[in-house]
């Protein structure tokens, strides 16, 4: 069924849109306005605030014009932790009786009026589809990362990669388009004139799921702890990989969201050494969960080792051939993260031994609030 029919022929299933946010109150409020301008609007809007003490997000939400037939739920998170905030969003959507959950990053914009409609349509009408993602068009990295050279290097991919090393140690050459390597590297799908393509991962900025494919096993204390120590790169891959073991994942070429790059990343470190460390260390958790709920195979472990060795060699050669302080710092951080990934795997017990994530979630959910629509829209 074409997405344009969904607004009038949608099944009797409730849609929740969840926006986890951290110190981006004005951006989150602006995105909320975009959501309410869509051809298909949510039955429940959930905003999970990673900085509730400031009161800024709730204050912005109370000034937003939203329709009275939408339930707006404010959840003050007790951890500024993207993976954990998404867990709170899922728990809230479940309590609200929703069948579809769409996660959106707080710094997105939506100019295409039917973008949300196009993303969620397959979840209503395509058998076996459990998750959908979409195009995200980014801004100019040279402007956004002007003061963060390590991020700029990664964004514009100015690497002097040795073709021989890539052939010998690269893990993606046998992975199909839209696929995922055992070390967590994603291959983009190809646009062949179709509206949707099957993939093995979803992009974190836009992730729509069927609620019946999500359960407690899709969320991990180990991942919460990895994000807690600011190494949670790839948390979207982790979640979509687990959900994808229960059905098909699609990439919606027909839906486009904008990422204006108006703020630096907050979910992971941006200083060169810490960024390099997180980039490598997070790969271990992705490798541990490459097969969803099944344990990794020996071939998966070997692929991780090859990826670590190959990437470390490329980063060090890049630093030596184009010497800059941040490149040496990134290479050293990546090497240290790879070493720890091999010999000190990320677990909740090791990284955050004093935190009971599920108990903390109950405390956070007990304080959530349903906001009333403004009287001028009632």
Q: What's a quick, concise take on this entry?
A:
Helix content is 41%, strand content 15%.
Which structural traits does this protein have?
378 residues, alpha/beta, Spore Coat Polysaccharide Biosynthesis Protein SpsA, Chain A, nine-stranded mixed β-sheet, 9 strands, 15% strand, globular
Write the layout of secondary structure elements.
Layout: H1 6-9, E1 15-21, H2 25-35, E2 44-49, H3 56-61, E3 71-76, H4 82-95, E4 100-104, H5 115-125, E5 129-138, H6 141-144, H7 149-156, H8 163-169, E6 196-199, E7 206-210, H9 221-228, H10 235-244, E8 248-259, H11 272-288, H12 298-321, H13 325-343, H14 348-351, H15 357-365, E9 369-371
Parallel strand pairs: 1-2, 1-4, 2-3, 5-8
Antiparallel strand pairs: 3-9, 4-7, 5-7, 6-8
Structure description:
Residues 158-162 have low confidence and may be disordered. The protein has helices at residues 6-9, 25-35, 56-61, 82-95, 115-125, 141-144, 149-156, 163-169, 221-228, 235-244, 272-288, 298-321, 325-343, 348-351, 357-365, and strands spanning 15-21, 44-49, 71-76, 100-104, 129-138, 196-199, 206-210, 248-259, 369-371. Helix content is 41%, strand content 15%. It has a nine-stranded mixed β-sheet, sandwiched between helices. α3 links the parallel β2 (44-49) and β3 (71-76). By secondary structure, the chain is of the alpha/beta class. It has one domain (3-371): Spore Coat Polysaccharide Biosynthesis Protein SpsA, Chain A (Alpha-Beta Complex), CATH 3.90.550. The protein is built from 15 helices and nine strands. The two termini are 34 Å apart.
